[in-house]
Write a structure and sequence with these properties.
The chain is mainly α and 405 residues long. The chain has three domains: 50 residues, Ubiquitin-like (UB roll), CATH 3.10.20; 69 residues, Receptor-associated Protein; 248 residues, Up-down Bundle (Receptor-associated Protein), CATH 1.20.81.30. Helices cover 74% and strands 6% of the residues. The protein has 15 helices and three strands. A three-stranded antiparallel sheet has the order 2-1-3, with helices on one face. β1 and β2 form a beta hairpin. α2 packs antiparallel against α3 and α8 runs antiparallel to α15. The chain is elongated.
Length: 405
Amino acid sequence: MATTVFKWTGKTARGEIQTGEMSAGSKEEVTNFLRKQRITATKVAPKQQELFGGIFSGGGKVTEKDIVIFTRQFATMIDAGLPLVQALEILSKQTESKGLSKVVEDVKSDVEGGLTYADALKKHPKVFDDLYCNMVAAGEAGGILDTILNRLAGYIEKAMKLKKKVKGALTYPLVIITVAVLVIWVILVKVIPVFESMFAQMGGTLPVPTQIVVAASKFLAGKGGGIIIAAIVIFIIAFKQARKTEKGRYYQDRMFLKLPIFGLLLRKVAVAKFTRTLGTLVSSGVPILDGLEICARTSGNKVIEYAVFDVRKAVSEGKTIAEPLLSSGVFPPMVNQMIAVGEATGALDAMLSKIADFYDDEVDNTVNNLTALMEPMLMVFLGGSVGFIVVAMYLPIFKMITLIN
């Protein structure tokens, strides 16, 4: 889901003015988040991006891998009996990420100032999301912070693997198609005109395939190439601008889920992410309504987000999770039935973990099948396209040799 960094100013219940930054999908999300923190927003505006992304400011980007390592090390230190502030002091100095080091230093200062660890983390939403902060809060309240941190690290690692699988499945065909298009473009723009001048000297009528290739070459070498590039650039800009709006993102996500092959893959990824997130939150003691809200906001897909929010509303009215989940039409019937069994037996978290494991395997199988299917198809496309051009260029030469004989 596309997000923007917003700068905000607000008043606390005591009348104190506070400012900060937050990464969110809209101004409403920032306002709602601040309201939960008992801060009344007076100004919320998109932050102006720094030149070169702040490279020369020494901030550094915090990756998911950095968070996993930090979380694992922090859990080990807490389990060993180190005080919270001392553990944060050690980690702020030994972490390799400059950005994370600064954030941990700020968190340590806030904890020393009297804030809970979870509240200190909430001041850095670009690094620690709602799921992370709520699970830490549940761990602090239950006195099992080290256990919760280990669960968090495991969750983030599995989410990273899932994301890597999907990126791998989508990247391979895109790279092959891009290479194929560039090769064909170079042949048509650079090579074909040389043959064309030779054919002009021969005279006579060219074969139909040759006429097609020569016409395509003239089109791309003339204004046609610029028109195609301009159309692609306009499409990308329009796509990104639409994605910044609520409706645009919703219609795009719905279109993605309806794609012939990739739509099924994205739906399985969404199910795996939803069940893994909700299972982790429920097993950590986070209230079910808060858990559903976090799942909706971290789903990464507006269609899934709206469906989960509808489920949350139904649950707040006294219904079970499975009933509104089934009526949403987004999740497969098997998921709804297994969740219903989990609710009936009081083992919802265990059932959600089983569903997530199953769909992780399903994503694996779908990616493998997709790769196996795409490889020959892409090779046929690349070989067929280049082969057609080569044959079209040599047909007049064969004709000329025949006439000479």
